[in-house]
Design brief:
Helix content is about 35%, strand content about 15%. The protein contains six helices and seven strands. The strands form two sheets. A five-stranded parallel β-sheet has the order 1-5-4-2-3. It has a two-stranded antiparallel ribbon with strand order 6-7.
Length: about 160
C-alpha cells in the first residue's frame, strides 16, 4: 500500500488560474480600458489623426514639470465643469497621471465615463512615458530622457510585445 501525499500548492497556484474563457473575457476587457504608453506614443507620432485625445489629469505645477506633447491639461478636479467644453464626446479620451503608484488617471477616467465619454487609462502614466525615452514638454520647452533599460528596449523602438 502506498501512502498518498498531498502537495500544498505554492502561493502562485494556491488560487487556481481562471478558465481560458474567463481569462479571455478578463484580458479582453482590460485592453478595452487600458492603453500602453508605447502604443499611445506610436499613435501620436504616426501620420494622421490618432483618433483619440490625451488628457493630463495632474495639477498645473505637475503639467509644467513635464507632459505628453499634444495632451490637453484637464485636472481631475475640473473635469465636471470643463470636460464638455474642451472635449468632443465622439472622440475617445486617454487619461494619464503621474504613474503606476497614482490612481488619478483612474479617477479622471471614471469622471469622464460618468459624463458619457469613451475613455481609456494610459498605464504607467507620465513616469513611464519619460522612462521609456519619449519626448515631453515642460514650461521651459521640449525635453527627453534616455530610455530606462528596465522599461524599454535599448536598441529597438519595438519591445516585441
Amino acid at each position: 500500500m502506498t501512502a498518498t501525499t498531498t502537495v500544498t500548492p505554492n502561493a502562485v497556484l494556491r488560487v487556481p488560474p481562471a478558465s481560458p474563457a474567463a481569462a479571455a473575457a478578463y484580458f479582453g476587457a482590460s485592453l478595452a480600458f487600458h492603453a500602453d504608453v508605447s502604443d499611445v506614443a506610436s499613435a501620436l507620432t504616426a501620420d494622421g489623426d490618432p483618433g483619440f485625445v490625451v488628457i493630463d489629469t495632474r495639477s498645473t505645477a505637475s503639467w509644467d514639470q513635464g507632459h505628453v506633447p499634444g495632451a490637453v491639461h484637464l485636472p481631475t478636479a475640473l473635469i465636471a465643469e470643463q470636460a464638455e467644453r474642451l472635449l468632443a464626446k465622439a472622440v475617445p479620451v486617454v487619461t494619464y497621471c503621474w504613474g503606476p503608484g497614482c490612481n488619478g488617471a483612474t479617477r479622471a477616467a471614471l469622471a469622464l465615463a460618468e459624463l458619457g465619454f469613451q475613455v481609456k487609462e494610459m498605464l504607467g502614466g507620465f513616469e513611464y512615458w519619460a522612462r521609456e525615452g519619449f519626448a515631453y514638454e515642460t514650461w521651459e520647452g521640449p525635453a527627453r530622457r534616455e530610455a530606462d533599460p528596465l522599461t524599454a528596449p535599448v536598441d529597438s523602438d519595438d519591445c516585441g510585445c
